[in-house]
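sorry to bug you again but im stuck and you know this stuff better than me. what follows is a protein written twice so to speak, once as letters and once as structure tokens for the fold. id like you to explain what the token line says about the fold, in plain words if possible. anything you notice is useful, everything is just below.
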Amino acid sequence: MKINYLSAVLLLLMRVIPLQAQSAAEEVEAFLSAGAVTYAQATRFLLEASDKLITSDPQEAFRYAQQRKWLPKKAAADGAARLDGISMLLMRCFDMKGGVMHHITKNAHYSYRELTNKNIIQGRVYPSMNVSGRELLIITGRILSKNEQGS
């Protein structure tokens, strides 16, 4: 488990660290220490990790995702990111396909269910819980790892 976590974080770091390694290291440190990330922080990070948008401005990233309806309607840029909302964003950022209900509704709840069924979201979690920086890194690392394996 510890080796999987470490390899996922290393894979993620290799993918998202820009040339400015100092600021990237500071960002990862801030993520690891964050009790709950905001939607703006998570959106900026995930858009960069998925190569959809490279920006240093979390507000710009949030607007980008919001205009494309990749976030729940009630998501606020400075609000704590919920697991179901992050699931919706993850599926859109990484162009993941879902099941029938996800395809019909395209809502956050079914995005969360898809990611738990695919074992990307694991453990004792629930859709309305806030996402910590550590959890966001782990989940993103799992998606990147699955994409690298071609699953």
Q: What stands out?
A: The chain has one domain: 2-149. The chain has eight helices and no strands. The chain has a mean pLDDT of 85.
